[in-house]
Amino acid sequence: MTETTLETITALAKRRGFVYPTSEIYGGLASSYDYGPLGTELLRNIRNLWWREMLHKRPDMVGLDSQILLHPETWVASGHVASFTDPLVEDKETHKRYRADHLIEQWLAANPGKDDVAVEELTLAEMGEFIERNKVLSPEGNEISKPKAFNILFESAIGAVEGEKSKVYLRGETAQGIFSNFRQIVDSSRVRLPFGVGQIGKSFRNEITTGQFVFRTLEFEQAEIEYFFDPESTEWEPVFKEWQDAMWKFITETLGINEENLRWRRHSDKERSFYSKETYDLDYQFPFGFQELWGIAYRTDYDMQAHLKHSGRKLEYIDSQQGGKRIVPHVIEPALGINRVFLMLLCDAYWEDEENQRTVLRFKPSLAPYKVAVFPLLKNKPELVEKARGIFNNLLDHMTVTWDDRGNIGKRYYYQDEIGTPFCVTVDFDSLEDDAVTVRERDSATQERVKVSDLLAYLQERI
User: Fold this and answer.
1) Is residue 208 scored above 90 in pLDDT?
2) CA-CA distances (angstroms) from residue 64 to 55, 112, 199, 201, 297?
3) Of 54, 178, 291, 398, which has the fewest Cβ atoms less than 10 A away?
4) Which CATH superfamily is domain 6-82+153-349 in?
5) 162: phi then psi, degrees, rounded to nearest 5
């Protein structure tokens, strides 16, 4: 079996309407993509499953939907304005910019054993020394500049009059909206420590590098949780492990990802953020190697204290059960990239069935953009079309269904295999006599006759 490449996944995604290059008619926009009809459905399924598993199934969780444009002081308090940076180098001939750490990683991959460093632990100065020592060049083969810090927050402005506009930032993460709303959430709901707040939303980063398809883009979607607790009454280690277990279960059981393609990676003391006591990444083995899918960090009370001091507002939790004790809670943060989950699902589900000469996306049925495809055997036979339409309309009330009457039945099956539809229902001439249909299962390509009266229950049981 041939190895799945990113180019193969990218081509399928565009061909079948999962992902399109943004503004393609104008030549596109670097590191930007639109999600087509099938991609939109897959993203919605990911979001809904995450929300169900991480919030609805936990009595200690509530949700939030904060703004993309927050007060600019939010980002000063959080430290993003001063230190939200990537290491940038510039090609001295073309003046194109690249991430220094990525160029070093590429050099190490191309020159195994020639230098032994942990790239994630290198300081800016150490990256410069490595580049000079090993004569690391740009992708075009040119000399590059020394690395410098590049702030990746997107700047914008609000106001109608030129010269009188106020600077704002497109949020670099969704977490800060949760912290700044902490007091309002506590006052307006019945949450009690420990509790968490979950949010799904768009974030923006002025990324230096391009490539790797939707893995790293200027605009992306995050699913973040801030779990608040009192460090004096709750030990952080069991809470941290509980969220790690929940993350692993979601990826392996809810999404059905192969465990062999996953790993936990602990951040070293040097790599870990200064305010974090513990950080792990849950990595997935993409076609371009193991990369972060989901991170979890024990951020202590750093964010809460920063906003408390900078805003001058009281962000403590008042515990009435402990005589009005004032608590600045500590936080454990599991932060997931929705677009990276999307790419992971395409990579993990991709299968070339050489025996039957077909390409299949083996999504779990609950994730598939369409759960069922309904066909009339022939589109020019009104009696077949009428019966198939009746079945199609009935199923629409219960699941996502697609209609297909193009070409021969074999081509229809193979098209549905390639977009991941788990079941195909065909109405043939026998259906007019026995009121049964042929149901074909995607992965095995086996077929079974099912009574129309039993069809909904049959499908629901398997989906």
Assistant:
1) no
2) 11, 46, 5, 10, 20
3) 398
4) Bira Bifunctional Protein; Domain 2 (3.30.930.10)
5) -60, 135
CA distances from 314 to 73, 200, 303, 325 (A): 16, 26, 13, 13
CB 279 within 8 A of CB 267: yes
Q: Residue 438 pLDDT more than 60?
A: yes
CB 347 within 8 A of CB 251: no
The count of other CB atoms within 10 Å of the CB of residue 431 is: 22
Burial of 420 (0-12, 13-18, 19+ CB in 10 A): buried
DSSP states of 328-363: --EEEEEEEEHHHHHHHHHHHHEEEETTTTEEEE--
What CATH class is the domain 85-151?
alpha beta
User: What residue segments make up the domains of the chain, in order of their start?
Assistant: 6-82+153-349, 85-151, 370-462
- Only one residue has tokens 């290491």, namely 87
- Compute the Cα dihedral for 265, 4, 106, 14 and give only its sign: negative
Q: Judge whether 20 and 14 are in contact, CB under 8 Å.
A: yes
149-197: pLDDT as tens digits: 877 788 888 886 666 678 899 999 999 999 999 999 999 998 999 999 9
pLDDT at res. 383:
95
- Rounded to two decimals, what is the model's pTM? 0.89
Q: pLDDT tens digit string along 314-369?
A: 889 999 888 889 999 999 999 999 999 999 999 999 999 999 999 999 999 999 99
In whole angstroms, give the CA distance from residue 377 to residue 370.
19
Structure tokens at 44: 């919605």
Helical H segments across 250-337, by residue range: 302-311
- What is the identity of the amino acid at 240? F
Contact 226, 196 (CB under 8 A): yes
Query: What fold characterizes domain 370-462?
Result: Rossmann fold (3.40.50)
- 118 secondary structure, DSSP code: -
